[in-house]
Every structure is written in structure tokens, then in C-alpha cells.
Amino acid sequence: MKRLIFTISVALSVLIAPIYAAADTAPSKTTEDKKQELDEIEKAQQALQYGLESEILEVVNKVDKRDFETLQSDFNRLFMETKSPAVREGLFDLYQKYEDPQLTEAAVAVLEDYEAQQRTLVKAVLSYLAAVKPELTSALNEALQKMLTQDTAEYGAETVSVLGEIGGDEDAAFLADYFDSLTIDDAKQELILKQTIMAALEKLHSEDTRAFLLERAQDENENIYVRSSAVAGLAQMGNPDIVPLLAEFFEQPEPQLREAAIRGAASFDTDETRKLILQGFKDSYYKVRLEALKTVQKTKMQEAAPYVLYRAKYDPTDAVRFAAVETLAVLNTAEGNAWLAETFRDAKKSEKLRITILSAALKHNSTALAADLDTVVLGTVTDNKQKKLRYEFGKEIAKIENTATTEICKAFLQSDDVLTKSIGLDMFKTNASADARALVEAIAQDEKQGALQRRARRLLE
Fold first, then answer.
1. What angle do CA 63, 431, 433 make, to 5 degrees?
2. Predicted structure pTM score
3. How many CB atoms lie within 10 A of CB 21?
4. CA–CA separation, 160 vs 155, rounded Å?
5. Sequence-distant (≥ 6) Cβ neighbours of residue 217 within 8 angstroms
6. What confidence tens digit (pLDDT) does each residue in 396-410 have?
7. What 8-state DSSP symbol labels residue 99?
8. Sequence-separated (6 or more) residues with CB below 8 Å from residue 420
9. How confident is the model at residue 10 (pLDDT cuts 50, 70, 90)?
10. Which end of the chain, C or N, has fewer beta carbons within 10 A?
11. For helices 451-460 and 437-445, what crossing angle results, to 10°?
12. DSSP 3-state assignment of 102?
């Protein structure tokens, strides 16, 4: 345990900025009275340095990406100093959320001494490593394989997932051999782990496992999910001799096999695989339709545009409709763009659909709404009956860097509604529009704006 603490300290010491000096380490009543007036960053810094575990976790769980970067030295210091497993877990989750690999060495140290750690902390570390995908060092590989073979029931699925993200040909061969020899007293748990191993092998799609995957895919007595991962992994190897097997899978009654066929078809660009993908849009199982949409987004398959548009208009499942909206934005066809704009303008359409259209256009194809963006969104700024829609539009705009939303940002900043003005500051924070700067400066100089004034000042620093 001492070695673990020392290793973590060394791993993080290079990351720690000088600890903030505080004039009053024990706030007086007057300071406490003023605490409510501090802006978000100052509140967060005080909570991270002086707060209870619950206060610290509240900051950790709510911080956005930009504030995460601003507070990173505080988080690094906290990780090194805290003795709370819950706080450490929360920090691993936070660094995972923003795919920050700075805790990698600390994570490896936890795994090397995993038997002395709380189970939930170990699982948080494994989840973190699967997300940030560090280099698979010999130390990490050794720790993972030890956990898999010695604590299979407890950590098997999580360690396999990490190997699936960062492993190589040798790890794929190891997992294939392990699959064949795996036996757990709990049959359900054994099946789950075998499915996880096959999902990892699909991601690795190593040529060294071709024969193994082909055998599993063709075995009609094998579990459906195992077969699905096997055929999709074979497809990713790129050998066209697997295409007939994909067609065969698509004709099966099990929807999971049809979904795998579409997933595999994404690795090819042949007449047969394109026809297969188009058939996926007509499948009765919604996940097959979702997989077809995902494939078209990836390949930008223009001939699928009419199918995508039909799904956006009429699909009975919201998840498919919204995925179709995003796919239309990616494809950027005249007919698709016209429908996106028309639906975005139509106040009779559901707010969720219109918000989804805005989000998709800002991410992939802002020109689709260029003629309507200001008119529609600005209309909500002056209509309090549409206040909820205004907020949701504003939040989507504030997420994505885009120069086309300057006038909207200015309108939000000029609003008398506090939340609207706050969202306007979020927009400025994302885009730092020069045209909106004067309005932010005005807020920063207005003592009546309270917390908004302090936020504006910080944004101008």
C-alpha cells in the first residue's frame, strides 16, 4: 500500500501547479456571508480545497470541459492529497469523461496493488483506462492478465474490455485461447465474459484470430452475440470472401445477427454490401435500422439519402428518427437540407425534434439552417411563451464552436432574463465572438449583475 501511495505521488507531482495561497484558511462569518457572491470557479476552488466529500463530489460531477481545464491543477492536487476512495473514484470518472490520460500511471499503480484497493475504485480505474486508451506497457499488460486469470469473476469483463481497446495481435491470441479454456461455476457469468471477450476480439480484428472467429461465426449452436461479434470482426479484416457470410447472416431470424451483418458491411464498398445496407433501413428491428444509419454516416453513402429522409420523417422510434436527422446533416443533400430547414421552422413540430435538428446542423452542416437560424432562435428570445425552447436552443448553441450564431449570442446577452443572459455568456465562452465582446464588457462593469458580472469579468481575462 505504501508503494502504491508513493507511486501515485510521483506520477502526479509533475502535474501539480503551486497550491493556491489563501489569505484566510478558516473563513470568518463575513467571508461566509460573501461566499454566495463568488463566481462558479472560485466556489469550485474553495470546495475542492476546503469542502466536505459531498461538496467535492458535487464539483467533480458537474464541471464542464472548459472549467475542467481551468481547474486541472486543483484536481491534480486533490487527487494526490485525498484519502477518500469516493473522491478518487470521482476523479477517475471525471478524467475519463474528458478523455484525459494524465492519471494513467496512477491507474496502473492501483491495478498493480488491486487486491488492497476497494472494488469500486478498481472498477473505476479499469473503466478509465478503457476510455483513455493508453499505450499497453508491459507493467499494465501484466497487471491486466493477472487480474483476468486470478480474479476472473470479479474483474474479468472489465480487464477484457481494456485489452480490447489497447491490445495487439498477441493479446488477441491470448484472449482467443482464454475463451476456449474459460470455465466459471456461474454459467450466466461465464456467458457474459465470453461475450465480452468476443466483443474485444471484434475490436482487435487480428488476422491471428481469423480461423477462431470463422469457426465461432459458423457454429449455429454458439451464442448469438458471440456469433455477431465474430462475423463483424472478420469483416473488419477486409477480406471480401466474408461478404457471402454477411448476406447469409442478414437473412437470419435473429435481429442481432442482422445487425452484425450491417455492421460488417460497413467495411466494404461493393454493390452487394451497399444493397445490404439499404435493406437494413427496412428492417423491423430498430437497432438494425440504427446500425444502417451509423454505417451511412461513416461511409457518407449518398444513395441512401432517400431512405434516411424517410426514416427521419416517419420512423416510429424516436432514437431512429433523431439518428436519421443527424445522418441527413452529414449527407448534406439538397432534399435533406430542405426538409431539415422546413421542420426547424415549423412551430407545430415537437420541440425535441427541432432541437435535434439544430444540434445536428451545428455539428455537421450549419449551412442547412443558415437562412432560418437567426429568425427561429431570435423569435424565442422575445417570446416568453417559448422560454423553455429558447433555453434549449441556447444550450445547444453554447456547446459548439460556430461563427454563424453571433447575432443570437448578442440577443441572449441583451435579454433581461437572467438565465437567458447566462446562456449568452456560455455562448461567448465557447465562441469568443468579437462582435459580442462589448456586451460582455458591459455586463462586467454593471454592479447590479451580481454573479453574472463576475462571470463576465472572468471570461474577459
1. 140
2. 0.84
3. 6
4. 9
5. 227, 230, 231, 234, 245
6. 999 998 888 999 999
7. T
8. 381, 387, 390, 391, 394, 412
9. very low
10. C
11. 130
12. helix
